[in-house]
Amino acid sequence: MITPSPTANAQDVTATHTPGPWVCEHGADDFFFVAPVDGEFDRDQRDANARLIAAAPELLEALKGSIGALEQDLDAGKDSGDSDWEGIAYQRLEAARAAIAKVTAA
Length: 106
Known about the structure:
The chain is mostly helical. The chain contains two helices and two strands; from the N terminus they run ββαα.
């Protein structure tokens, strides 16, 4: 079993997984994931890919929860006059919705 380091946190961990975009293609019998890279994966990268895939359900739920919080923040800050913040927040909200749509699309 691959487990994260007990001292790791989101602020100080550098991702070693294969960078995206990744695509999901339907093979003859199963779905399989394709990460477009040149060369072979080393063990660290394979382990990081496995951790990323294993964490995907939790990441999806966290992202779904973040949408509600971001919407509340946008509603609360509508009259703040900070259009830069609103623009960035709306971009992040749309990016989160698009990512969720990729996962939940049939």
